[in-house]
Amino acid sequence: MKGFGGGVAFATLTAVIWGGQFVVGKSALSRVDPYPLTTIRYALAAMLLIALLAAVEGRRAFALEGHGWRLFGLGSLGFAGFNLIAYTGLEHTTPQSAALVVALAPLVTAIALWVRDGVRPPRVTAVAMAVALVGVALVISRGDPASLVDGSVGAGDLLVLIGVTSFVLYTLGAARYRDFSPLRYTTLTAALGWLTIAGATALGAVAGLVPMPSSGDVVAVSPEILYLVIPGAVIAVLTWNASIPRIGAQNTALIGNLIPVTTFVIEIARGYRPVPLELVGAALTIGALAANNLLVRRAAARAPRPVERAERREPELEAA
Fold it and tell me: At residue 319, does pLDDT exceed 50?
């Protein structure tokens, strides 16, 4: 699975798994609250990842190298922040709406870089963002954007967007750990992030804000939990991280647009019948994201490299 073809395969597998994850997660939430569900899920996922890391890279891979608190913070953002907030939002929205909001991650990344580094997104990204938001509004309102104004819909999708922002910050933080393998970075941050998940669940339970499931509830959704753990939290994260060095972050993000497509296909196969404006909205959002990816890359390819700019300036200096 090396090279470009392997990267495409990894990214496609991730998109299909994560597209199904919203449908499966929505089903599990009918019996188990998002907080205990996420606690159980990542307890199992972290144990699997720890076993894999120990087998593949050995004990030395668990050394935090003085980055313990930073990795803890990133793990809390990426795993606790995204899953606790986004799955709470999923309780109050549809799987296809949540998947479409998650697909906005590249645009959220552009805004985060603007705020953090002062790198203003290009005009095409601003246009794509506006079009994508119109598309999302059509989907989450089921073709009736006016319903967003009175607050009857949209709260769950807003929570999903906050969760996506948390995961984007986690992803940007990974740039500091390029010397870590995808397996090592994922394992350490997931294991440390689980501490925050468990702590938040315990506090919520003590305060009476988080209902704890019975053993019967957990058993009833055990197939869903297994899907969320093995394909969703272990395989998909590793294949996503493995695709980036093979085909680049932009190509990986482009293939990530298959996530909402997969969710829509699954829901339609299960009997959901979207109104025409919903499909128009989904097409607008996915098309805007894909167009932004391709146009930004084309502009970057045309831009002169630093050496080329220096060579252009030399004749000007000689003429002066």
Answer: no
